[in-house]
Design brief:
Layout lengths: L3 E5 L4 E6 L3 H11 L4 E7 H17 L7 E7 L8 H13 L7 E6 L1 H13 L5 E6 L2 H7 L4 E6 L2 E8 L4 E4 L9 H18 L1 H13 L5 H18 L15 H10 L7 H18 L5 H12 L11 H9 L9 E8 L2 E7 L1 H11 L1
Parallel strand pairs: 2-9, 3-4, 3-5, 5-6, 6-9
Antiparallel strand pairs: 1-2, 7-8, 10-11
Helix pairs in contact: 3-4, 5-6, 5-8, 6-7, 6-8, 6-10, 9-10, 9-12, 10-11, 10-13
Bound molecules: nicotinamide-adenine-dinucleotide (NAD).
Length: 360
Amino acid sequence: MKNLIPVNLKSQKYNILISQSENDFLKNLKKVTATTTFFIITDKNVKKLHLKYLSNLLKQRSNDSKVSVKTAVISAGETGKNIKKLSFLYNKALKESIDRNSCVIALGGGVIGDIAGFFAATYMRGIDFIQVPTTLLAMIDSSIGGKTAVNITKCKNIVGVFYQPKLVWINICFLITLPSQHIKNGFAEAIKYALIFDRKFYTYLKKELINGFIKDFDYIIYKCCFYKVQVVKKDEKEISGVRTTLNFGHTFAHALEAYTSYKKFLHGEAVIFGMLFASLVSLKLKLCSKKTFKEVKQILTLLDFKLNVKINTRQLLNLMKKDKKTTSGNINLVLIFKIGKVKSVSVRDDIILNVLKNWS
Ligand SMILES: NC(=O)c1ccc[n+]([C@@H]2O[C@H](COP(=O)([O-])OP(=O)(O)OC[C@H]3O[C@@H](n4cnc5c(N)ncnc54)[C@H](O)[C@@H]3O)[C@@H](O)[C@H]2O)c1
């Protein structure tokens, strides 16, 4: 297994480095930036655990004492991914004299990656940034591919731009402090890649879950990053539809997150229910066999999450219609055909309502 995945895009080329070696990181960092000023954006939890470590590492970068590391800390969790926090970041950056030659580092989970990326894309019309993901979800998904965004009330990721990082450094040591609920949350996205692309990977992940421990995080992360990069290379800005397949389970998930005001479910948890919902729709439309549906249900059930919320089906449908993939009022859902094959399909409202009613 290689530890460097090149992301060669039209807009930019960069590397994903999967390594526990600080030297590897510093060498790769040197190749992408000559800056002496870093602006680390992180959240309150990650600050306590890992900020000092990264800050000291960056200072080692150069033997002279010129390297300066400024930081901005926002509240943890989805509610921190909003315009108010973005505005705080702009003001803090100005106060700290961050300029076009500085480099932003997103140190944290997907929330930090998304808001820091959006900040980097827009501050002074765009400055360099690097992703240092610290959750499993961010390592296998959100730190790769250049989607950046903030939420506005009841609408997730609706304001954002595509903006690629200069480097992504994935170090599984950060996972040591990550609570198990968040490991499971990331694992849901790993299952998503398996269901979309790879039956063998599905079997591998199922075995790991049944055994009750993860033997090789680096391998799982490598596989997920590999698949994400293949898709992003083909469809960087989600234009041709190839990238849309990665949204398997996401239309329902985003609606569920909004329905519960981003407070009840973690993103990956919502994606579990989204994948189950999409598979129920596939079954209803006879696009997948009962066996496939059972296989999807089996692996998701192993993660042991409960959808203990009363759903108003009409309200949820309306929220699903706010999805960016809705065209002319029709909901386009990524549906499963068999393990390793999914496709975007336009689904009528009555079918969605029927599946929701029978499920909740
Ligand atoms: N840009 C994309 O392509 C993309 C893809 C998927 C998800 N996302 C976004 O990612 C976000 C979810 O990301 P997430 O699940 O990483 O959530 P998160 O960023 O909220 O992190 C989860 C929690 O873990 C804490 N944490 C982070 N690293 C830690 C560590 N090493 N040890 C202990 N605690 C740690 C955080 O403080 C937070 O409380 C959502 O906003 C979602 O929309 C974006």
